[in-house]
């Protein structure tokens, strides 16, 4: 359980760092770009992928390239959502992207669904709608917040679906992960050079490297928890998602003085109920 706790804490700390960095004038795209430098190095030493024997012909380079673009793009959308909609709603929307992933599993991968899983998906979609609608009466920032929250929800689900499809082709997880991080880093650096003509100052680089450490730690602890609790994956799934939502709510209320509107409160309750239903469905 300590690994799940650590993974959830790192996940929320990533959001806190992005939000506070933006509040202090740091450009999120510079932080996100340098985050992939740390993630690539840590991934190589932690998972020890066999990059020397990667097959040029059998590796799905198109998917890896697509994910190399999608990863920093969705990360940037996450930063925008944190700034406009707040950490509380953003964390819930991010975690409930699993609802769209499961829907894709049904329609694309022909996975059989139990009644409990269908209920969980329905609750999750309703929760996201409640969270989005909680901003509907706001002007400017509220409308943009709805857009960014929706894009984060869809974006993280798309990444999850592409990862599932990539691993189904036989490519090892560690190799896939490392190649994606490397690709995301190279493409992000190219974008910085073209748009800003520099890679950022020492402050951006330092904070970005710390961000990458937290981002990778989140993944590493989560994967390790699944390895140690391989017979009870539902506990890892439910524990991770519930703790991230709870930590996100606490961070929003305590550190950023955010307030729960009635629609957001309903979305939070429905979101937690959705995660519990899906966890039970997975363990059944």
UniProtKB/TrEMBL annotation:
Protein keywords = Membrane, Transmembrane, Transmembrane helix
One Pfam family assigned to this protein is EamA
- Record has Transmembrane helix as a keyword: yes
Q: Which domain of life is it from?
A: Bacteria
Q: Does the keyword Transmembrane helix apply?
A: yes
Extract the InterPro entries matched here: AA-Vitamin_Transporters (IPR050638), EamA_dom (IPR000620), EmrE-like (IPR037185)
Question: Which residue ranges does UniProt annotate as crossing the membrane?
Answer: 29-47, 59-80, 92-109, 115-133, 145-163, 169-193, 205-223, 235-256, 263-282
- Tell me the ranges covered by the EamA domain, including all copies: 3-132
Localization in the cell: Membrane
A single GO CC term for this protein reads: membrane
Topology relative to the membrane:
Multi-pass membrane protein
Q: Which family does it belong to?
A: Belongs to the EamA transporter family.
What this protein is called in its record is EamA domain-containing protein
